[in-house]
Amino acid sequence: MAERDTPTPAPDAAGPVATDEVAGAGGVVFRPSGEVLLLGHREGSWVFPKGHVDPGESPLEAALREVAEEAGVRAHCPDETQRDETRYVNARGQARRITWFLLLTDDRAPALREALFPRGGFFTPEAAGAKLSFPEDRALLGRMLRRFEALRREAR
């Protein structure tokens, strides 16, 4: 399994944040067609691109960097308020708090560059929901899909 073997329920978003929690950021990346980017971890799980936030880096900057590094996809954020958050404890017992951004791209396919993620692609939301390995990621996909569809309606 990938790093996140043992997800735990997220505490109330308004509640206190553990001081030893490690901040991360990631992107739920949509193509104009509504397909969403997933990466296949070398140990078998399917996830959204994400990673750590470097010192001095904003969560959005980290999300865009991680999408570019892990998937080779150029993305942009149409609205920084279209964000979400998940919390979990990874397999090493480390508490993680990930800030997710709704990102858009015109790229047709990922240019996979990292051995950690040998597989990846854009999938319909239905196929992505079936592939995602973690229940909190499936719930995140549902929330971000509703936001993506609302943005698409507003653009018409």
Question: Would you give an account of this structure?
Answer:
Residues 20-145 form the Nudix hydrolase domain. InterPro entries: Nudix_hydrolase, NUDIX_hydrolase-like_dom_sf, NUDIX_hydrolase_CS, NUDIX_hydrolase_dom, Nudix_hydrolase_domain. It comes from Truepera radiovictrix (strain DSM 17093 / CIP 108686 / LMG 22925 / RQ-24). This is NUDIX hydrolase. GO terms for molecular function: bis(5'-nucleosyl)-tetraphosphatase (asymmetrical) activity. The protein is of the alpha+beta class and 156 residues long. The protein has a single domain (22-155), classed as Nucleoside Triphosphate Pyrophosphohydrolase. The chain has three helices and seven strands, in the order ββββαβββαα. The strands form two sheets. The protein has a four-stranded mixed sheet. The chain has a three-stranded antiparallel sheet with strand order 3-2-7. A hairpin with a 5-residue loop joins β2 (36-40) and β3 (46-47). α2 (125-131) runs antiparallel to α3 (135-155). The longest helix is centred in the last third of the chain and has 21 residues, at 135-155. The termini are far apart. 29% of the residues are buried. Mean pLDDT is 89; it is low at 5-18.
